[in-house]
Amino acid sequence: MKNITDKIGFICDMDGVIYHGNKVLDGVVDFVNWMQENNKKFVFLTNSPERTPHELSMKLQRMGLEVSADHFYTSAMATASFLNNQSPGCTAYVIGEAALSKALYDVGIYMNDVNPDYVVVGETRTYSFEKIEKAIELVNKGARLIGTNPDIVGPTERGVMPATGALISPIEIATGKKAYFVGKPNPVMLRHGISKLECHSGEIVFIGDRMDTDIIAGIESNVDTVLVLSGVTMREDIDKFPYRPKYVLSGVGEIIK
Q1: At 156, is the pLDDT very low, low, confident or very high (cuts 50, 70, 90)?
Q2: Contact 59, 69 (CB under 8 A)
Q3: Measured between alpha carbons, how far is 26 from 5 in angstroms, rounded to an integer?
Q4: pLDDT band with cut points at 50, 70 and 90 for residue 20
């Protein structure tokens, strides 16, 4: 564990690593307190676009963790930054929660359901056939299709539930257009996390629960990876992939035992 605890910077996924739904996972409180007490640099990097950094900070506060909003970076924020860099002042038709719309507004991207430059899809609980129809119409008219993250499913208190990759697939199938996903494993997302830490890649460890988004993102960004078995990927799943995490733990609590 010394190879991990000696790191200066920690990038942590949230769903399946820190919590499931509204339930904090075993060992998380002690791990986060340890990072703060030892002046570690850390950022929570989440593919979920449903909450703002302030809302995530408040969520952890309700779970007994005091973490300020500047420690969070979401796929909604990464998507907004990507679109702003690609096409400043563009417009978008959005299927997603308020946090995604806010992230776009914050960089000057406004909503447009007539002739938008982009159709942007993120996780949402207000998914409807009407919205799918509208998105298909707009993509067929020339709007480019963007997904905040490619996750097909995500862990919740009620088990594994559909995520953005599943929600966007009907639009892809109906239009024949493939979405561009900004969230992990896209290196764009992880580079934002690394830049927030202001550390060299060799001084950072990336902790995640998914081989297909977290671990591959860490490997491709040249940082050490820790797979925790508290989320989506189980131990028996590891051999299904042509790459491996550097470390495999049952949860983040093991790091400081």
Answers
A1: low
A2: no
A3: 18
A4: confident
Q: What is the mean pLDDT of the chain?
A: 94
pLDDT tens, residue by residue, 38-73: 999 999 999 999 999 999 999 999 999 999 999 999
Structure tokens at 73: 């970076």
Is 100 a domain residue?
yes
15, 151, 212, 224: the catalytic one is: 15
- The CATH number of residue 251's host domain is 3.40.50.1000
Pair 138, 203 in one domain: no
Q: Is 15 a catalytic residue?
A: yes
Annotated catalytic, 6?
A: no
Residues near 76 by Cβ (< 8 Å), separated by ≥ 6?
Answer: 49, 50, 52, 96, 99, 100, 102, 103, 104, 122, 148
Q: Band of the pLDDT at 157, cuts 50, 70, 90? A: low
Question: For 85-138, what is each residue's pLDDT tens digit?
Answer: 999 999 999 999 999 999 999 999 999 999 999 999 999 989 999 999 999 999
**Are residues 204 and 249 part of one domain?**
yes
Inform me whether the pLDDT recorded for 82 exceeds 70: yes
Residue 71 belongs to a domain: no
Task: Indicate whether 174 and 188 sit together in one domain.
Answer: no
Is 204 domain-assigned? yes
Catalytic member of 6, 13, 26, 106: 13
Handedness of CA 226, 230, 236, 239 (dihedral sign): negative
Structural domain range at position 14: 2-47+184-256
